[in-house]
Protein 1
Amino acid sequence: MKHLLTIFSLCILGLTGCGNGNSGSNNSNSSAADTTPGETVEAFAYAMQAGDTDKLKALCPDFEANLSADEIQALAATLASNARANGGIASITIDKEDVDGDTATVTATLTNGNGLSGTETFDLNKTDGKWLIDMTDSFDQLPQDEPEGAATE
């Protein structure tokens, strides 16, 4: 699996241990076209805690563009396991939401049921009327796999 642990780290940086509790609103009944960038970030956190691969892919197309189906499934299972270990999401606070046309930056603080909290900044793009998490820069920073049979020094 190519760099799965690095991707895992990128997903939970600042959102360490998204839990499996159902505190707060997860906007699961809202259409993505009706949501704000902040609500998309909240839905992304709840999808991580649930290990919901379909929702993760829907909210962050970069997963499907950069990971195999098996890698996404393994990532989702790891996120859900980590979530259970940290007591669930006690609260998500949208600290700042800056929208500029079809791009947005959201800073959110997540507090877990075990009292740990972290703050993370997310980039989003509006595509077909829906706010989506943009992790392109994160994936671009990953080391590239060497082609099979490549000579190493």
Protein 2
Amino acid sequence: MDFSISKINVVPVQAPADLHKAVSGQGVSADRNTEAELSNSISLEQTKEMTERIQMHLDRMSISLRFSTYGKYDEKISVTVYEKDTGKVIREIPPEEFQRLNEKMEELIGIIFNGNA
């Protein structure tokens, strides 16, 4: 699966009903409470501002990002940075060689644990 970013948009999402409890600490463990506080520390306005600044930098540098999935169940994401005008790949994170190595390692693990060695 491949998808590209040409413009970054931030869309507000309706929080679940129990989010207020998590943020206020009602009935939530200390670890989850801290996690909720951290995830809630950036407001929607701050997120919008950050994405606008990122988009401005991307536009100024004339680059785009393309996201792809890989792995046995497409559970991992790679990012390709490329020039808008030429389509030339500047960088891929993680590199394609690492993605192939990851697939081979998963195969080997399957062979070892399934007893097919």
